[in-house]
């Protein structure tokens, strides 16, 4: 007996055939019938394949008849029409579509993990929150001189503003060691015992005078407040869409979510269930949307008392202010440390992941060689996908490869696509922005905007195709599930790419840290850190490279969403070592 799936496939074939042939004789011009005769013959000859491969017929009908039928009817050939026509046919095996329900469960599972890391910490008065001044840091087993390679441990006991010992953890701390004269720096590892005490561990990577820093970015109560507030609204940043209306423009409110009784334009990716909305202007079609800009809305989901925790004087306060620099010497010089293997995909992640010395990044678990950029990129197509922190890479390539010529793509605005080509070395490098949300006060074009999962689905991929993805900064002002869903959709697109082209090299660049005193409710590094944890968790099952820009920018101490070129150069050098 045929299975229900087989019945479904045959019904699909029959329906497509009836629609096509019925419409064919009624509406198509004579010359079109003559043109498609060979296609019709091809279909009849391939009829025998349908019993064993109904997908083959669906593909044939869609590719041959649908395209010509749409053209003859003078209908636009667009992705939504194509998906609608094909949705009753079996999906190709290399294009697995995750159901919305399954995606919701995946988001929920990640959210539960994050919720466990950030318990609710209500407080009655600011004096009961963590105080950097009252807290006490103690170096364990202090020495006059330390040896390079040693681990230095600091015990931190946190107290509130009245000097009372805290009984729980959860403070957002940042540990760093540095030697400015040597252009050296590294992050420290913070272990939270969840009882008001922390162990801060520094690996002494270099010799010289080393300064230790331990910043209280936010107290645990502030972290809890930021986490609760982030879940509550989409309107901390609001968008204005510009629609073309003849020779004039019409502006309208837009958002990731609009609670409005008026007619809306819904820009929906039906497969990945990601949407953006605008209030529909009167007498203007939704397709006329051309530009977008954003601004911060005067709204907060924090109480007045909670907001006081994020005043400038309370953010990033030094705990180890009174500590003198330590001295680190080259002891045991007769012992030669083994040279670690060259950096490649899949290597063990460590905390810290490396250190800066003489302005050069040195990973812990592998070694980076100096790579001649132009030779490494010979014959390669590099896709840089994401935000302006990966656009910095594009700008670095253009300034460093003098034969890389920019191609005018006839776009305008802040987020216009960029494309560079070196014809002699056959190098092609492209930067493309990610889809909504994009936060920026200047108008930017959305005529060519698309989600990165769709971009990746269009890339054929092979051993000379390199894809670097970076996103996060523009997602910080919105509920975390927006970021998680986007990361999951990109993960699934990368998974599909690696199924069809396993030699393609995909690299995830984590977020940079940014300015410390820049509107904590919207842009705090706490939001970035949570996204950093989420994206590492999401991509851990794929054979992709990870560039730990989070740890790198802490080591450099940049505190700038767009770090200096020396930092960008070292991030790119990791990529070059991955691929060459």
UniProtKB/TrEMBL annotation:
- What superkingdom does the record give? Eukaryota
Q: Which InterPro entries match?
A: Ig-like_fold, Ig_E-set, NXPE4_C, NXPH/NXPE
Q: Name one Pfam family in it.
A: NXPE4_C
Carries keyword Signal? Answer: yes
Q: Where is the signal peptide?
A: 1-29
Keyword Cell membrane listed? The answer is: no
Domain NXPE C-terminal stretches: 361-580
Q: Which UniProt keywords apply?
A: Signal
Name the family: Belongs to the NXPE family.
Q: Which PANTHER family match?
A: NXPE FAMILY MEMBER, NXPE FAMILY MEMBER 4
Kindly provide the name given to this protein in its UniProt entry: NXPE family member 4 isoform X1
The organism is Camelus bactrianus (Bactrian camel)
Give the classification, highest ranks: Eukaryota, Metazoa, Chordata, Craniata, Vertebrata
The gene name on file is NXPE4
């Amino acid at each position: 007996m045929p299975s229900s799936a087989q019945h479904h496939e045959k019904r699909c074939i029959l329906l497509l055939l009836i629609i096509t042939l019925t419409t064919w004789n009624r509406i198509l011009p004579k010359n079109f019938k003559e043109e498609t005769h060979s296609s019709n013959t091809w279909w009849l000859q391939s009829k025998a394949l349908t019993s064993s491969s109904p997908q083959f017929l669906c593909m044939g009908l869609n590719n041959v008849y649908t395209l010509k039928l749409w053209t003859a009817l003078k209908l636009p050939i667009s992705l939504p029409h194509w998906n609608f026509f094909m949705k009753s046919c079996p999906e190709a095996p290399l294009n697995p579509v995750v159901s919305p329900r399954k995606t919701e469960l995946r988001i929920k599972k990640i959210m539960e993990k994050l919720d466990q890391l950030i318990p609710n910490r209500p407080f009655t008065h600011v004096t009961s929150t963590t105080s950097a001044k009252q807290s006490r840091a103690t170096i364990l087993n202090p020495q006059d001189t330390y040896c390079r390679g040693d681990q230095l441990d600091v015990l931190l006991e946190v107290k509130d503003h009245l000097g009372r010992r805290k009984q729980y953890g959860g403070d957002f701390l940042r540990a760093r060691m540095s030697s400015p004269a040597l252009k050296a720096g590294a992050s420290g590892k913070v272990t939270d015992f969840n009882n008001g005490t922390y162990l801060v561990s520094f690996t002494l990577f270099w010799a010289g005078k080393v300064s230790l820093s331990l910043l209280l970015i936010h107290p645990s109560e502030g972290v809890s407040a930021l986490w609760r507030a982030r879940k509550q609204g989409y309107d901390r940043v609001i968008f204005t869409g510009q629609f073309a209306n003849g020779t004039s423009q019409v502006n309208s409110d837009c958002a990731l979510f609009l609670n409005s009784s008026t007619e809306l334009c819904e820009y929906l990716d039906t497969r990945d269930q990601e949407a953006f909305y605008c209030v529909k202007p009167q007498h203007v079609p939704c397709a006329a949307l051309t530009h977008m800009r954003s601004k911060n809305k005067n709204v907060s989901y924090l109480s007045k008392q909670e907001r006081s925790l994020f005043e400038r004087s309370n953010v990033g306060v030094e705990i180890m202010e009174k500590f003198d620099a330590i001295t680190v010497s080259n002891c045991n010089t007769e012992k030669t440390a083994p040279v670690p293997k060259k950096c490649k995909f899949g290597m063990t992640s460590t905390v810290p992941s490396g250190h800066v010395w003489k302005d050069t990044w040195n990973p812990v678990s592998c070694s980076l060689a100096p790579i001649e950029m132009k030779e490494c990129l010979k014959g390669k197509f590099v896709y840089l996908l994401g935000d302006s922190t990966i656009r910095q890479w594009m700008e670095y390539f253009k300034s460093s490869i003098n034969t890389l010529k920019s191609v005018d793509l006839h776009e305008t605005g802040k987020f216009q696509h960029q494309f560079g080509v070196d014809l002699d070395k056959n190098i092609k490098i492209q930067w493309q922005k990610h889809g909504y949300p994009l936060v920026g006060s200047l108008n930017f074009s959305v005529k060519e905007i698309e989600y990165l999962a769709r971009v990746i689905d269009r890339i054929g991929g092979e051993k000379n195709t390199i894809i670097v993805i970076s996103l996060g900064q523009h997602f910080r002002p919105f509920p975390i599930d927006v970021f998680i869903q986007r990361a999951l959709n990109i993960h699934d697109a990368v998974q599909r790419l690696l199924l069809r082209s396993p030699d393609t090299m995909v690299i995830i660049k984590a977020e940079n840290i940014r300015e410390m005193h820049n509107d904590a409710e919207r842009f705090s590094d706490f939001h970035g850190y949570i996204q950093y944890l989420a994206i590492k968790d999401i991509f851990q099952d794929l054979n992709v490279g990870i560039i730990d820009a989070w740890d790198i920018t802490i080591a450099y101490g940049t505190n700038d969403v767009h770090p200096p070129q020396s930092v960008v150069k070292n991030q790119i050098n990791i990529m070059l070592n991955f691929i060459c």
